[in-house]
C-alpha cells in the first residue's frame, strides 16, 4: 500500500492535459512584437504579464487609424491598425489543485493576421494557472509565452 500511494498521488495531481504543440499554418514575419489580446478571459492578466516578460507589447484594444495620402490630386484613404497580429486565448478546465487556488487548464492561442483575417499559428499547452504541488516546467502562461516567443520570427 505504501508503494501504491505515491503513484496514485502523481496520477491525481498531474491530471490529463493537452500535448504541447505549435502549428504554423502560414509563414509570417512580424516586424514588431506588438499584439492585441482579442479574447476576454479570467486569466488575461496572467497571460498578458507572461507575454510582456518575453518582450511582447500586449494591447488591450485594436486601434485603427485612418490614413489619407494624396497622389496626383487624388486622396486615397485606408485604415491601419496599430498591431498587425492579434491573439485569441481559449481554454478548458481539466482539474483543480487541492492545495491552492490553481486550476489545470488546456489552453490554445490562435494567432491572427488582422490585415488578412487569417489564422497563422496555433499554440497549445496544458498546465497549472498558479503553483500547485507539481508544477514542473513552470505555469501554463509562461509556457505559452515561451512557445510564442520561440516561433515569433
Mean pLDDT: 82
Named CATH architecture: 2-Layer Sandwich
Percentage of helical residues?
10-25%
Order of helices and strands: HEEHEEEEEEH
Q: Give me the count of strands.
A: 8
Please tell me how large the radius of gyration is: 20 Å
Please, how many domains? 1
Secondary-structure class: alpha/beta
Largest sheet: 6 strands, mixed
Instruction: Note the total helix count.
Output: 3
Beta-strand percentage range: 35-45%
Regarding quaternary structure, what we see is single chain
Low-confidence stretches: 5-15
Distance between the termini: 52 Å
Q: Would you tell me which CATH topology applies?
A: Double Stranded RNA Binding Domain
Overall outline: elongated
Lateral arrangement of strands in the main beta sheet:
1-8-7-6-2-3
- At the first level of CATH, what is the class? Alpha Beta
Brief characterization of the structure:
With 153 residues, the chain is of the alpha/beta class. The chain has a single domain, classed as 2-Layer Sandwich (Double Stranded RNA Binding Domain).
List the helices and strands and how they pair.
Layout lengths: L3 H11 L6 E4 L9 E4 L6 H10 L3 E3 L4 E8 L2 E8 L3 E12 L6 E11 L4 E11 L11 H12 L2
Parallel strand pairs: 2-3, 2-6
Antiparallel strand pairs: 1-8, 4-5, 6-7, 7-8
Helix pairs in contact: 2-3
